[in-house]
Amino acid sequence: MQIEFKLFATLMGYLPDGAVKNAITLDVAENTTPYQLIDTYCVPRSEVHLVLINGVYVDEAGRDRPLKSHDTLAIWPPVAGG
User: What are the sequence ranges of the domains in the chain?
Assistant: First the structure.
């Protein structure tokens, strides 16, 4: 199945080759979870803060639930400001 994988800010460097700006369309196995993608692309879980699927916030427990075909997974690191 295909999903869109988006990483923002300091996480963009973890995107695989072929990404355009901060996103790439990936072919993934059925039942792939957000955490599996995070681990596959070596994104440190400690740097994963905000996770959205199709624009809807996903808490830590929900990150082990399978994605569906054509979902968009978007991930941001913790934000610092001042």
Answer: 2-76
Percentage, residues of the chain above pLDDT 70: 96
Say how many residues make up the chain: 82
DSSP at 70: T
The mean pLDDT value of the chain amounts to 95
* DSSP-assigned states of every residue in 15-81: SPTT-BTTEEEEE--TT--HHHHHHHTT--GGG--EEEETTEE--TGGGGSPP-TT-EEEEE-----
**For the domain 2-76, what is the CATH code?**
3.10.20.30
Amino acid 80: pLDDT: 62
